[in-house]
Amino acid sequence: MIRESLLEENIDLSSIYLIPVPDILMNNVWVSHVRSFSPNFDIVFARNPLVIRLFKEAGFEILIPPPYDREKYNSTLIRRLIIENSDEWKKLVPQKVAEYILKIRGDERLKAIAGIY
């Protein structure tokens, strides 16, 4: 979904890596864990205070992206709107994300998890 959204915005992906990193719940080795999954990097983009602290302590440059409206762009709200059959959720995600969720029948899966058939 992230890749398709970036492409939709005409962002050149030739120097961008999207790498899923499983959480290990061990702060003391988190930075080395992330580095083991990644090519070399010098800059970390983060808003999470713990992530910022850990990478800053490890000597990385930190760039903090501007804040966004967490009341509006909230995964719990978006899932609730999907479960309630409200099309409003589609306005809260990039078009490619909405298409992908529908393609994989994510709306039906959420309703099944919520016990709505």
Automatic annotation (TrEMBL):
Origin: domain of life: Archaea
Pathway given in the UniProt record: Cofactor biosynthesis; NAD(+) biosynthesis; NAD(+) from nicotinamide D-ribonucleotide: step 1/1
A molecular function (GO) term: nicotinamide-nucleotide adenylyltransferase activity
Major localization listed first in the record, in broad terms: cytoplasm
Alphabetical UniProt keywords: ATP-binding, Cytoplasm, NAD, Nucleotide-binding, Nucleotidyltransferase, Pyridine nucleotide biosynthesis, Transferase
GO CC term, one of those recorded: cytoplasm
GO biological process, one term: NAD+ biosynthetic process
EC number: 2.7.7.1
Catalytic activity: beta-nicotinamide D-ribonucleotide + ATP + H(+) = diphosphate + NAD(+)
Protein name in the entry: Nicotinamide-nucleotide adenylyltransferase
